[in-house]
Design goal:
By secondary structure, this protein is an alpha/beta fold. It has helices at about 40-50, 70-80, 95-100, 110-120, 140-150, 170-185, 195-200, 220-225, 225-235; strands spanning about 5-15, 15-25, 30-35, 55-60, 65, 80-85, 155-160, 185-190, 205-210, 210-220.
C-alpha cells in the first residue's frame, strides 16, 4: 500500500481550475518530485494535500486514512508536513519559538526530543536559539522552515521550491540535507524549480502542465526525455509559481 495516494485531484480558485484531475502516489521512504512551469498547479497540489486549500474533487489518502478536505492541523497530526514556498518563518519570534511552534501537535516531552533531533541536523542553531528569525539570512530561514516541519516527526515531508532565491552554495546545502532526510526513511514530495537537482534527489517524477499530468516516470527516464530536456533543462524553469 502506498503511503500517499492522490486520485483525480481537482482544485479550483473561483472560476479558475488550477488542478484538473491529477493522480499520483508516494511510497514509504521515497522521494517524488512534481515538475512544471509557472501556473502548472504544483503549489496548489501541495496545499490541497496539506489541507490548506479544500479540493473541489478527487481524494487524498494517507496510509489507510482518507484525509481529503480535512483541516490542516489534523493532516499535520496524521504525519504530513509542508515546507511552504517563501519559507514563511515568524520573523519576530526566536529560532526556538519557531521550532517549538512546529511541534505543537505533540506532547511537551515529544517536542523536546524532536528539538534535539532537529538541532542535530542543524547544529548551527544550537547556540542561536534566542536569535530572532527575522535576523537570519534567506538560506538560514529556509533551514529553519525545514527544521520546523521536521518537528512534527512527519512520515511525509512536502517541500515547495526549497532553493528559490538562494545562492547556489546554500541550495547545495539544502539538497544535501534533503538527501539525508530521504536516507533516514522519511518520504518526500518535492516541488523544485531546479529540475536537474530535483531529479538527482528523487527516484520518480510527474510533470504537470496546465493542471494535468502529462508525463511521469523514473528520474532517469525524465532526465532523458526530449520534452523535459527542451522545456525544463534546456531553458530553465524560471521562478516558482
Amino acid at each position: 500500500m502506498s503511503l500517499l495516494r492522490v486520485s483525480d485531484l481537482r482544485v479550483r480558485y473561483g472560476a479558475i481550475q488550477a488542478v484538473r484531475g491529477i493522480s499520483f502516489q508516494v511510497e514509504e521512504g521515497e522521494c517524488v518530485t512534481i515538475l512544471g512551469a509557472n501556473g502548472a498547479g504544483k503549489s496548489s497540489t501541495l496545499r490541497a494535500v496539506a489541507g490548506l486549500h479544500r479540493p473541489s474533487g478527487g481524494s487524498v489518502t494517507f496510509g489507510s486514512q482518507v484525509v481529503t478536505g480535512e483541516p490542516a492541523h489534523r493532516i499535520a497530526r496524521s504525519g504530513i508536513s509542508l515546507v511552504p514556498e517563501g519559507r514563511q518563518v515568524f520573523g519576530t519570534l526566536t529560532i526556538r519559538e519557531n521550532l517549538e511552534l512546529g511541534g505543537y501537535v505533540q506532547s511537551a516531552s515529544a517536542n523536546g526530543e524532536a528539538l534535539e533531533r532537529v538541532l542535530g541536523i542543524f547544529p548551527a542553531f544550537r547556540q542561536r536559539l534566542g536569535a530572532l528569525a527575522g535576523t537570519l539570512s534567506g538560506g538560514e530561514q529556509q533551514m529553519l522552515a525545514l527544521g520546523r516541519a521536521l518537528m512534527t516527526r512527519p512520515r511525509l515531508l512536502m517541500m515547495d521550491e526549497p532553493s528559490l532565491g538562494l545562492a547556489p552554495i546554500v541550495a547545495n546545502q539544502i539538497f544535501g540535507i534533503l538527501t539525508e532526510i530521504v536516507g533516514s526513511g522519511i518520504a518526500v514530495l518535492l516541488v523544485e524549480q531546479n529540475v536537474h537537482r530535483a531529479l538527482q534527489v528523487a527516484s520518480r517524477g510527474y510533470v504537470l502542465e496546465l493542471g494535468e499530468v502529462v508525463l511521469e516516470g523514473t528520474a532517469a527516464s525524465l532526465l532523458a526525455d526530449d520534452h523535459v530536456r527542451l522545456a525544463y533543462l534546456g531553458h530553465g524553469m524560471g521562478e516558482a509559481e
